[in-house]
Amino acid sequence: MSELSVTIGKSPPLKEKAFLFARKNMGLISVLISILAIFLALSIGAVLIALAGINPWEATSYLIKGSFGNRYGFGETLTRFVPLLFSSLSFAVAHKSGFFNVGAEGQLLLGAVGALLVGAYIQGLHPVLHITLSILAGVLFGAMWVGIAGLLKIFLQSNELINTMMLNYIGVLFVEFLIHGPLKPADSYLYVSSTILPSAKLPILLSKTPLHAGFLISLVVTAGVFYLIYRTPIGYQMRTVGANLKAASYAGISIAKVTIAALFVTGGLAGMGGAIELLGTQFKIINGFSAGYGYDGIGVAVMGRYNPVGIVLSALLFSVIRVGMGAAQRGAGVPFPLLNVIQGLIIVFVIASGYLTNKLSETVIGGRA
Amino acid sequence: MKKLSALLLLVLIAGILVACAPKATPTPEPPVAETTAEPVAEPEEQLRVAVIFNTTIKDGGYAQAGYESLMAMKDKYNLDVSYQESVGDANVKDVLRSYAADGYDLVYAHELYFTDAVNEVAAEFPDVKFGVTGYKADFPNVVALDATNWQGVYLDGVVAGLMTKNNKIAMVTVSQSPTAFRMVNAMYMGAKLYNPDVEIIHLFTGSFDDVVKAKEMATAAIKDGADIVYGNCGMGTTGVIEAAKENNTLAIGSVVDRSPLAPELVLTSNILDSGRYLTLAVEGMINGDLEWGKAYILGVKEGVEFLAPFNEIVSQDIIDKVEQATQDLVDGKVELPANDNYLWLK
Lengths: 369, 346
Hints:
- By secondary structure, chain A is mainly alpha-helical.
- Chain A is 77% helix and 0% strand.
- Chain A has a single domain, classed as ABC transporter involved in vitamin B12 uptake, BtuC (Orthogonal Bundle), CATH 1.10.3470.
- In chain A, helix 6 packs antiparallel against helix 7.
- The interface between A and B is large, with 54 and 47 residues.
């Protein structure tokens, strides 16, 4: 404290009090800063909307009404939340294990393909079994897809950031090929895959909305993933590898084994997201099956600071924005490009606020929050 | 210093917030006045029309034409309109349901790939009318409107058949789909009408946006003796016209008027007026003469397909013959072209 008084100078009592307060309530402060950042981004967005000649209050009210204010919007928001949550979990697990997986988009698509193969072509199963097997197939396919990048990294030390990114494009085109040929039903006029059987469809949770049981699965999986990461030996090993490869190696952890486990989890999660999106909302694979969930998941994970509560909240925020902005466009006529700008503003501000929180906690605590 | 700068940053953020908040408050006021004034001026019951586009409404083509016809009708019939643009295939069902739940009278999806989604959602909202620029209307509250996609090409064929000197016409399309076969055969039938010796070289790019490949294919066809090139392959069409320009060969465009690309060489273009679908759906709803549960296939007769103004080198004699062919199409005298193989192979 003496050092503090020296740096700050003339009026120590008040400043010291502020620092003490900040030191004690760092968690609260970081949440407040994030909220302020979102508010700030929305204020700038409001100015932009006003400049486009639209009443920003009207737009905001449509945003809120559209995403939470009515039954359908509420259900839609929680439905959009599911794939976002899975792809951000996928990114967060990889991040914790020292692996950069920006390929959730491709893994999600391949996961949907896996789920479709089981969900559409295997007949006569009990719904519970059919859904479980379809989701497992999705997990397997997602893991296989990231596995390509993983094996390249383990055996050839090639950069996984580039490889997972490249596999996205390959995945998108591969799935496009599938729906133009092998998976396209003969009687279909358009290029789409076959539809999954009724027994593979996830039940609806809230009638007259698209909200399906995948929402509950996603919450359970989130809890499970963080239990795995923070409360199990393999999770500890994954985090150690992620934090310091050399230290982990000296500690006798088999890097290859841990990396493969982490890969399976990260790819499996993205694949599961795709499988649930297929079984819960889309029922068949179409061009543009994933509305950029794999990419948005990265933003969600960074914004949620790789922490379970943070990720759930930021995935919710992203889906509120996705759904609410559609409503703002329909109701208030806010042009679509402007909505993209506002979404971008929110991401930039929240990430900047994360940086600010880190700086602040370094200052008052001497470490990261 | 670090601690101070962190504090300063906080203060700065607070400052910006304080500065921003009041700024945001006064700006909205003028629009408030506008929006509250509107409902007062329109006491009578308005028809509420919602339209969904899959791209931006500023795409200079398909969606823009739809948007413009929507806005024209908004003024003409005093409609209450709303639209959502750049809607992905993954989200379209939610947008359709939101509009239907909002009480719109007509919810129109302006995209072929939305056909299945429209039919699926329409089953859930039997009291709402749905329209789609598509091929299928499974329910009594749905109407589907699609173009023939060949009648305009048939008219192109008449022009090409009369203008070609080598009797070789090249066509560049995206694929060998049934739609493409029908277009190729329509061109062949149109050309054959006044030129029994005509031959068609059909090439396909496999992509809606491969401009380079389309250009290479058209160039190859020109080297092979074709003296008229026709492009109907999305973005690639510009590549076909480009090839015509480089080789000083006549060309025919498609979908929109392509003559600005090469005014000297483009003879005409078969236009597909995608705004017409919307006009037909809305006017049909107002006049009550639209048959619900039906998939319409619209062409020259309905004004969805027609030819762009001709190049001045196209003689009056040819224009008269095109008019005759147009009349034949309107009268239903032209047989539907085959869509499974080339006519000359049959």
